[in-house]
Amino acid sequence: MVNLIESLEDEYAYKRENKEPFFVVSVPIKDKLSITDAIEEFCSEEKFVGNDKIYSDEHKTKIAVSKKMKFSSLPPTLILNLKRFEYDMKTFTRFKLNDFFEFSDEIDLEKWLYHENNNQGNSTKYRLKGVLIHSGSAEAGHYYSYIRIND
User: Fold this and answer.
1) Helical H runs in 1-151?
2) What is the mean pLDDT of residues 26-55?
3) pTM for this model (two decimals)
4) CA–CA gap between residue 101 and residue 39 (Å, rounded)
5) Which end of the chain is more exposed for a tag (fewer CB within 10 A), N or C?
6) Which one, of 130, 112, 150, lies nearest residue 1 by Cα?
């Protein structure tokens, strides 16, 4: 993954690319209907303005920036973790999201690929090979899986 951080202020030229290796991509699913919605949220732009501006050593001041995540390269096998467990700060308890969530047999990550880097010939398309399912509450339960073998 690459974190892209860019200035929102014309008077300050600022651009940073921070790479982060990953094995599993954990995507938020709260209030999302599908895997594409979840990946869209994961890669969405976040703005740091007002009191949230970041300090630039180069410019010796705080500046407004935008930050977004992109895939700098894609692995042969992609593992997505759906963030189904949340923590309620009012009740100090964990709970499980049991809302409807849809994923298709195939997904293309081209839209979320950082094109300034090459993808080393890997495809941006993935086909679903398996699903790991949690049955139970946020405090206890069991896992089982479905695996696709020979279609």
Assistant:
1) 35-42
2) 95
3) 0.83
4) 13
5) C
6) 112
Task: Read off φ and ψ for residue 96, nearest 5 degrees.
Answer: -105, 135
- Would you mind telling me the total number of residues written for the chain in this entry? 151
Is 118 in contact with 124 (CB distance < 8 Å)?
no
Indicate the Cα dihedral angle 87, 93, 97, 98, nearest 10°: 180
CA dihedral (145, 125, 107, 47) in degrees, to 10, reads: 110
9 three-class SS = coil
pLDDT for residue 94 is more than 60: yes
Q: Which residues of 32-69 are buried (b: 16+ CB within 10 A; e: fewer)?
A: beebbbbbeebbeeeebeeeebeebeeeeeebbbebbb
CA distance 134 to 18: 33
Domains of the chain: residue spans and CATH = 2-147 (3.90.70.10)
Longest CA–CA span in the chain (Å) reads 59
Give CA–CA dist 100/79, Å, rounded: 20
